[in-house]
Amino acid sequence: MSRNCTNFDADFIATVIREALGTPVQVVSLLTPLDGRYQITATDAGVYLSVWAPAYGGEPVRKAAVIQDLMSRNCTNFDADFIATVIREAIGSPVQIVGYLPPVDGHYQITATDAGVYLSIWAPANGGAPVARSAVIQELARRNFVNYDRDFIARVIKEAIGSPVLIVNSFSSAQPVQNVRVKVGLDHLEARVDVTRSPDAPAVTVTQLMDELKAAGVVYGIDEAVLETLAQAGSGANVVCARGTAACNGEDAQLKYHIDPDSQGRPVEMEDGRVDFKEINSFLCVQEGQLLVEKVPATPGTPGMDVFGSPIPPRAGRDRRLPVGKNVVNVDDWRLYAAIDGHLNIFLDKRINVIPIIVIDGDVDYATGNIEFKGSVIVRGSVQPDFVVKAGCNLEVYGTISGGMVEATNIIIRKGIQGMNRSIIKARERLVANFIENATVYADQDVIVNDAILNSSVFAGMRVMVEGRRGLVRGGRISAGEVIRASTVGNQSGVNTELEVSVNPFLKEELLSLRKEIKKSEALYEELKLSVSYIRSQGADQLSREKRERYQKHEADYHALTERLEEMRQRAAGIEELLNTLKPGRIRISGFIYPGTKVALGSLTKVLSQPLQFISFYAQGGEIKFSSLR
Question: What are the respective helix, strand and coil percentages of the chain, to the nearest 5?
């Protein structure tokens, strides 16, 4: 402050002091801020976006500006979230954001003057079909043009220069010819007229044109002004003279959620991509009588009319069922209300259930024993060594997991995990913790850590993010299916640390195991179903005591297996959906990554021999490459 330097980051200065590298580190930039910039390039293969990052405190590229630019170029088939990712990564090289452009067929025009007949050919684009020679020759014959060279016409079509080429020096007909041809599109929404005549033939009249249209059955949407212009011109090709009215299809029914299912168990993400660990949406708790979902009904649509005067019925919008589950009230198939106080849970088949929550006011220890519950669990203390907590929905632990075993859908540990080299944590969706130490963690989607991951094995189906206070990863193995983000990796002593971005092998193994178990259970299900049906048909009351007990056991096994099959199918569908939505892998380090760290992207590996800072690793051309984040 005594040197009038004010544009500095106090947290970054604290990091420099803590690392104490002994080499100069820039803390204030005196250069002029440079804003980020972008470039949109369109080729036959598609549309590409290049984004360059800002420098010296400049403003980054705004997603809204890129989308507005794309819309002005009539590019609409793009993914706004993927564009945001390209802007955030800002690698400075083209990234395809729109697929192949629509094909454009080649077309032609035949023009007759006193000097002769001219043919203009335009080449196709984006893989469209070229002009067919047979179509040109058929058109010449229909217009009574002769004395042309077929091979020369083929050459003109091949060159496709887009300007008139003389193909007939002069033309004549044996007698004055006047020809009017009406063409109606396959959808009956457009009628076109071709008018040709020899020089000695009389001009066509509006009455003649109207008669030809009526003879072809065209009675609706006729544009008399176009017919008058065509009669004055004397000839014309492909002139649109009548248009129908297309039907407007109805809109499908929509579900309007009065809660946000996607916010469950996810910290609030700020504009710069960081997460606020002070604001965590632990569970979606609802109260009895609270409105959950209402249906916006489908619309019938508006009918149209074709050029023949026949009505075109619209396609009515499709109805949509309300996602009725357990402990909800369906009012007139219109609205869903919570029937009890509890926790909202949405299964893979989109059924909404309200499930009560278990709250444990202290630790999970000898006073409580192991906990296994189909709903959600809140532990206000800690999970002590060798105790197990399994929740069918979500789990929130206010203290720590100290050598305990935990399994749930979403897991939030407010303090952290002290694994003692024996804790195994499994989250069917995502896990949020302050720190992870000497533990093994699995999550089908995300692992989000505020402070540090130390000497642990962490496996996430999508993302591992360590970007809080220290954002430190040191020792152990970190594996994610899509991206790993951290502030500091390894240390100056070269501790062995592995960062891997690839498809989670444990998920693939679980999916294969589930498929085998489902197939085996389905066979057993059919056997039990036949057995129960047969005994019911014989009359259970007439059975002996021994047979009646066997029947009761079969019936209990049948109902239990039905529920187990449904759970396995939902789990398999969730894994398949996750594996199919993964994006190309990245590793982003916002601070230092030290030697001794092993980086793996898919089958590619790289062991760092020197420290790097502010770096992003990605796979390209069969090797691991990196670019600066600044």
Answer: 25, 40, 40
Q: For 562-610, write each residue's pLDDT tens digit.
A: 888 888 888 888 777 766 666 668 899 999 999 989 998 877 888 998 9
CA distance 107 to 23: 68
Backbone φ and ψ of 396, nearest 5°: -130, 125
Distance CA 287, CA 281 (A): 16
Contacts of 324 (CB under 8 A, 6+ apart): 330, 336, 351, 352
Task: Give the number of other Cβ atoms within 10 Å of residue 531's Cβ.
Answer: 16
- Residue in 565, 572, 555 with CA at minimum distance from that of residue 513: 572
- For residue 58, give every residue at least 6 positions away whose Cβ sits within 8 Å of its Cβ, in sequence order, or none: 33, 34, 35, 36
Enter the tokens of residue 80: 């706004």
Amino acid at 47: V
| pTM for the structure as a whole | 0.44
Residue 453: count other Cβ atoms within 10 Å of its Cβ.
30
Neighbouring residues of 390: CB distance < 8 A, sequence distance ≥ 6:
370, 371, 372, 373, 406, 407, 408
Centre a 10 Å sphere on the Cβ of residue 220 and count the other Cβ atoms it contains.
Answer: 17
| pLDDT on residue 482 | 87
> What would the mean pLDDT of 406-414 be, rounded to a whole number?
94
HSE-CB for 261 with a 13 A CA cutoff: 16
Largest CA distance in the chain: 111
Q: What is the pLDDT of residues 344-392, one digit of tens each?
A: 777 544 688 887 888 888 999 888 888 888 778 999 999 999 899 998 8
The DSSP element (H or E) to which 396 belongs, if any, is strand 395-397
Q: How far is CA 188 from its chain centroid?
A: 37
Tokens read off for 191: 């009628």
Which string of DSSP letters, residue by residue, matches 438-489? Answer: EEEEEESSEEEEEEEEEEEEEEESSEEEE-SSS-EEEEEEEEESSEEEESEE
Q: How far apart are CA 385 and CA 372, in angstroms?
A: 16
Q: Which of 135, 169, 139 is nearest to 154 (CA)?
A: 135
The tokens describing 532, both together, are: 């129960």
Cβ atoms within 10 Å, residue 466: 26
Closest to 447 measured CA to CA, from 434, 463, 468: 463
Determine the Cα–Cα distance for residues 42 and 63; give it in Å rounded to an integer. Answer: 18
Token pair for residue 297? Answer: 């009904």
Q: Give the type of residue at 351.
A: R
How many Cβ atoms from other residues are within 10 Å of residue 374's Cβ? 12
Question: What's the number of CA atoms in the CB half-sphere (13 Å) around residue 376?
Answer: 26
| 483-486 and 472-480 beta bridge pairing | unpaired
